[in-house]
């Protein structure tokens, strides 16, 4: 996990979720009666370190499973290494969708679970002209293509599209272009600490009265906590998890989180819960298999293992290796949080299910695109 560097706005809570998940599983008897041993590496927001440590965990640590990766570039750096080594891999982050790989399980939501409901919701509520601002790497680029498709399906127009490098915080020209084109909706696919500047600039320009920001990624990096409420209030986000979810599992999880980390506790976000779910789904698969044998665990995971998560029930879709889970349409409030407006219960990874069946075609190793 990226515990340092510009992506630590995601990585710190993900690393903490890993430590707490291992502690929780061990406190409940471990896996197959054995205690789990965690090997953790800080990848420092450096894709090259993902490849380095993927080789370390397979060659030296002989790991049974790897849970890690944040941005899609990091996933693609380690995925082939783990596939060659037959080391099970869980990718615990929302992403652009389409990955179909027998060795990889994805607990983060895909675009077909978040953008597919979010775009028609935005069009119906706010208007038919959209403007996309996206991070300039595979997540932002491919997700922007999905915005185009879902906008067309909703009979809406994308009137502008800009890509911004992860190391840039200069949004002056983009703000000016949005003011000129006056879209009803801005779709934010921005990522990382530097991109927080967009929301500050948008608020400072007084644009929220005319244009609504919608996003499948806002809040995943605690943007709603870091930014002033004036910059976040009214932003619409499609998220499987927000802290305000009212269910007994979430209440218990938040208590355990605060008991463990106290005053230093990171905000709990989608990323936190994706990690928590990954470890528990893997553990459930091993228990069902009755073995750590790779093929037996794979068979168990592909049987549709489920877990009662703080975000609601989650289960592995056998064919696509993605996760079926609730998705919530939320709005940023004035208290550094989100209010839930609507829920898509047990949202399937619809696109992935349509193109990927790893039970019938286990040799597939491809990322399908819109």
Written overview of the protein:
- This protein has two domains: 8-110 and 244-325 and 348-367, 3-Layer(aba) Sandwich (Rossmann fold); 112-239, Rossmann fold, CATH 3.40.50.2300.
- The protein contains 13 helices and 14 strands.
- Strand 7 (185-189), helix 7 and strand 8 (212-215) form a beta-alpha-beta unit.
- The two termini are 29 Å apart.
- It is α/β, with parallel strands linked by helices and 370 residues long.
- Strands 5, 6, 7, 8, 9, 10, 11, 12 and 13 form a nine-stranded mixed sheet that branches. The chain has a three-stranded parallel sheet with strand order 1-2-4, with helices on both faces. Strands 3-14 form a two-stranded antiparallel sheet.
- 41% of the residues lie in helices and 20% in strands.
Q: What is the general shape? A: globular
Q: Please identify the structural class as seen in this structure.
A: alpha/beta
CATH architecture assignment name of the largest domain? 3-Layer(aba) Sandwich
Helical run tally: 13
């Amino acid at each position: 996990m990226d515990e340092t560097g510009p992506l630590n706005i995601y990585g710190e809570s993900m690393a903490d979720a890993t430590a707490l998940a291992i502690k929780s599983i061990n406190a409940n008897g471990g896996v197959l009666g054995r205690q789990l041993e965690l090997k953790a590496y800080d990848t420092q927001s450096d894709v090259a370190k993902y490849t380095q440590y993927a080789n370390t965990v397979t060659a030296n640590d002989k790991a049974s499973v790897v849970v890690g990766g944040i941005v899609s570039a990091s996933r693609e750096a380690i995925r082939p290494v783990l596939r060659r080594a037959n080391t099970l891999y869980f990718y615990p982050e929302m992403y652009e969708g389409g990955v179909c790989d027998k060795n990889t399980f994805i607990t983060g939501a895909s675009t077909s679970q978040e953008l597919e409901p979010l775009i028609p919701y935005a069009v119906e509520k706010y208007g038919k002209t959209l403007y996309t601002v996206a991070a300039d790497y595979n997540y932002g680029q491919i997700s922007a293509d999905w915005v185009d498709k879902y906008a067309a399906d909703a009979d809406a127009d994308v009137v502008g599209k800009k890509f911004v490098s992860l190391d840039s915080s200069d949004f002056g020209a983009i703000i000016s272009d949005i003011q000129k084109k006056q879209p009803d909706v801005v779709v934010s696919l921005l990522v990382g600490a530097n991109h927080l500047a967009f929301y500050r600039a948008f608020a400072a320009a007084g644009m929220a009265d005319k244009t609504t920001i919608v996003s499948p990624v806002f809040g995943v990096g605690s943007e709603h906590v870091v930014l002033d409420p004036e910059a976040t209030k009214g932003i619409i986000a499609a998220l499987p998890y927000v802290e305000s979810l009212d269910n007994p599992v979430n209440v218990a999880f938040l208590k355990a989180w605060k008991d463990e980390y106290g005053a230093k506790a990171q905000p709990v976000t989608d990323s936190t819960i994706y990690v928590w779910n990954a470890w528990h789904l893997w553990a459930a698969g091993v228990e069902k298999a009755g073995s750590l044998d790779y093929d037996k665990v794979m068979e168990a995971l592909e049987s549709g293992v489920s877990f009662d998560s703080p975000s609601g029930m989650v289960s592995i879709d056998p064919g696509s290796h993605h996760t079926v889970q609730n998705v919530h349409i939320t709005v940023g409030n004035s208290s550094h949080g989100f209010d839930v407006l609507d829920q898509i219960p047990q949202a399937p990874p619809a696109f992935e299910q349509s193109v990927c069946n790893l039970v019938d075609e286990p040799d597939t190793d491809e990322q399908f695109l819109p």
